[in-house]
Design a protein that fits this description.
mainly beta; five-stranded mixed β-sheet; four-stranded antiparallel β-sheet; 28 strands; elongated
């Protein structure tokens, strides 16, 4: 009696977890028979090699995706077999808030959008928005109008969850102003023919009037060179519909000239009255400061 013996390697897989969030660490055990060399392929571009019949590997899948690990067994007699494990689904969303502006005034509307990315193997399951002021939403896109009374910062939180239970969070800060916080130095005095640099701050866009005597209408500190008393109007913007108007006065004085009286000769120890005579006619009082040449 004769027998035909058909050999060759065979095996089976045991995997600790087949669906979870990235990064996913799994324990993979392969029980292989009739093999002297086992070549592992984790299906993510990595692999390893061993010669044991029962081998356990700990492997971490870093990126979302669907993976199917395998072991190719070689019995050394020319028979090679590849044993495939179960599919491993690695998921995980990336939360992302998109907002029409990070700066707003009271009673202005902002558009909020959930721009989160969900892996194809772990699609969207749920989202939750929450604001510092107590507002919540589950919508993907919505419009919100702030009304805080005083100027303040509002933190916006978004939590998203994928189909295999993985979640991620994103947050942004929105600055809410009671009104556009425009600050200016509101009065300057110069002599006729001089120029002065105006000063303002606190907002993101500036629009000056009186263009004929300003060096630039779109900056916070243009040079002004008025020939007479001038009031400059400034509008400061936080957003196109959130602005504050203020004025800056530049008072122009006539150039000051005068004399300290005629030259005089006196004896040592004598006194003399020296009186300044001003040629300029102008409003207000003069401030005098006297010097001598020694």
């Amino acid at each position: 009696e004769k027998f035909i013996d058909i050999g060759g390697p065979s095996g089976k897989f045991i995997v600790s977890d087949t669906a979870s969030c990235a990064p996913l660490e799994v324990s993979i055990q392969a029980d292989v028979k009739n093999s002297i060399a086992n070549f592992w392929d984790f299906d993510d571009g990595t692999g390893t090699y061993d010669t044991t019949a029962s081998s356990k590997k700990i492997h971490t899948y870093l990126l979302p995706g669907v993976y199917r690990p395998s072991v190719t067994a070689d019995d050394g007699l020319g028979c090679i077999a590849t044993v495939f494990g179960p599919y491993i689904r690695v998921g995980g969303p990336t939360a992302k808030i998109s907002v029409s502006s990070n700066i707003v005034c009271n009673d202005e509307e902002l558009i909020f959008i959930d721009s989160s990315f969900f892996d194809v193997n772990a699609p969207f399951k749920s989202r939750n928005w929450s604001f510092d002021n107590g507002f919540t939403s589950i919508d993907s896109t919505f419009i919100y109008k702030f009304n805080t009374g005083d100027s303040t910062d509002i933190n916006i939180f978004l939590n998203v969850v994928g189909s295999v239970g993985c979640e991620d969070n994103d947050t942004v800060k929105v600055r809410v102003f009671a009104k556009a916080p425009l600050e200016v130095k509101d009065k300057f005095i110069i002599c006729k023919g001089d120029s002065i640099q105006l000063s303002s701050s606190g907002v993101h866009q500036y629009e000056w009037q009186n263009s004929g005597t300003l060096s630039n209408l779109k900056i916070n500190n243009p040079m002004a060179f008025p020939l007479q008393n001038t009031i400059y109007q400034l509008r400061g913007f936080v957003s196109p519909t959130c602005f504050t108007d203020k004025s800056v006065t530049v008072e122009v004085k006539n150039a000051v000239s005068g004399t300290a009286g005629p030259d005089t000769i006196i004896c040592n120890g004598d006194q003399i009255l020296i009186q300044a005579v001003m040629d300029t006619i102008d409003s207000g009082q003069f401030i005098y400061k006297w010097y001598h040449n020694n």
